Each structure stands twice: as C-alpha cells, then as structure tokens.
C-alpha cells in the first residue's frame, strides 16, 4: 500500500501475524506514518516482501509475534530470502521493531537487532513490545485485541519514523 505516489521517502513495514495482534500493531504504525505528507508507506506481509522491497525503502519497521521465544518462521523466512541480496546496500538506514509477545518478547527483539546489525541498519527506537500474557494453548491461539493505548504507541512510532525520514534526521 502506497500512501503518496509523489513521496520523497518510503517507509517499509514488514509483518507476520497469526492471531491478529502483530497485524493491528503494524497497521497502527502505518496509520501514524500516513499522516506525514511526502512519505510513502508500504505495509507488506512477510511472505510477500523481498529484497527489492527492502532496497526500494528508506526506512523499515519489522513486526513479528514472538513464537517460542523467537521471531516467527515467516519473518525468519523474509530475512533469509532478503539478507544477502541487500547486504552492504542499505547501510545506515533507520529501523524499528514491533513485537507481540505472550510473555516478554525480548528474545525476538534481540534477534531482529542482530539481523539489523548485520545489515548495518540504525536502530532509531527501542523495540516496541506488547505483552498479551497469553500462556495457555487456547489463549495463545485466540485472536488478539491490542489495547488502544498500545496501538497509540504504535501510531506515535509511525509518526516519528515518517517525520524523521522526511526531515533527514536518521
């Protein structure tokens, strides 16, 4: 989804979501970024995103559920498919991450940070982790509903990233 065909900068949001929580977070981030005229926002599911999408963007948000204390398999697949084709071609570009976790989300955030470090990206915000406290099989598999205040934080992150891209502060 492109927000502005005449945009001078592009923010790519790549996400995977099984129960809707990460999707809600990614969409709220997109909505916040859309408020900045001059920034195109592309929201892509991890399975549809690839190296060219990464190369065509000026900044990134990587959004994943934490599955078994790790990023989701589809996010891992996206990184596996994209990592080497863009290596040393996106150095210094800004990124942020969103994690929808059942318990703490820290390990998934560390995984993304390690990948981004290899790509030589610049982290411009701490990982935004939303903890759903889902601990039983039923709660883990149930559709998620992210609280409004958490979605507000995602929107604010999108606004900040888009403004920073446009102003060239990253």
Could you explain the architecture of this structure?
It is a single chain. The protein is built from six helices and seven strands, in the order βαβαββαβαββαα. Helices cover 42% and strands 23% of the residues. The relative contact order is 0.22. Strands 1, 2, 3, 4, 5, 6 and 7 form a seven-stranded mixed beta sheet that branches. The protein has helices spanning 21-34, 51-56, 73-86, 106-118, 137-141, 148-167; strands spanning 9-15, 39-45, 59-67, 70-71, 94-101, 122-123, 128-131. Helix 1 (21-34) crosses helix 6. The protein has a single domain, classed as Rossmann fold (3-Layer(aba) Sandwich). The longest helix is centred in the C-terminal third of the chain and has 20 residues, at 148-167. With 170 residues, it is α/β, with parallel strands linked by helices.
Spell out the key features of this protein:
single chain; 170 residues; alpha/beta; Rossmann fold; seven-stranded mixed beta sheet; 6 helices
